[in-house]
Amino acid sequence: MDKRVDRWFSESEQREVDRRTVRDAAREQMGPWISSLREWDLFGTLTYDPAKIADADTSNHRAATVSVWKAQRDGRRFISEASKRLGRPVPAVLACEPHKSGSYHMHGVFDVGGLSPGDVMRMWAPWFSRHGFIKLEAPRSQADVSAYCGKYLAKELGELVFSRELLQLGAKVVRGVMR
Questions:
Q1: What residue ranges of the chain have pLDDT lower than 70?
Q2: CB burial string 54-76: b at 16+ within 10 A, e below
Q3: Does 18 map to a domain?
Q4: Using CA atoms, how far apart are residues 94 and 20, in angstroms rounded to an integer?
Q5: Rounded to an integer, what distance in angstroms lies between the CA atom of residue 48 and that of residue 133?
Q6: What is the number of domains present in the chain?
Q7: Mind listing the pLDDT tens digit for each residue in 42-66?
């Protein structure tokens, strides 16, 4: 016998249940959708070295917490610099995720239009020197990309950073001019 007790939800409780249901459904679809946007050449993680974000105002150099807004700004800058350093657009999606400490880091996928010798080094050098640690790797298969997107890029739906190229593509799709 089922011992659950059915009950009516208040209007605010029902709105919260509905919000959670929609959010969870969107998360479930976000990873496969991002994976399907294009053939991604690289995926990886961008993290901050606490020593490089140390609070300069304290004598003990206690590490500052990286906010989601700083991570998003730094992520956009990373994409822009990668495009300049490679001499071609680098469509990308980054997801800002909080660490247990509350400080944010990012997971991302990048379409560099095929890898040439030195491309990865050219991309990660500015991040490494300015912010901290970066790991970029080529996926073995699109299934790897799908799994990565599903695991990392679908967690924090409101914290995604899309490259300018993908935002322009999205605007064309919304206007119905996709070719």
A1: 1-7, 23, 54-64, 153-158, 169-179
A2: eeeeeeeeebbbbebebbbebbb
A3: no
A4: 23
A5: 6
A6: 1
A7: 888 999 888 887 643 344 445 568 8
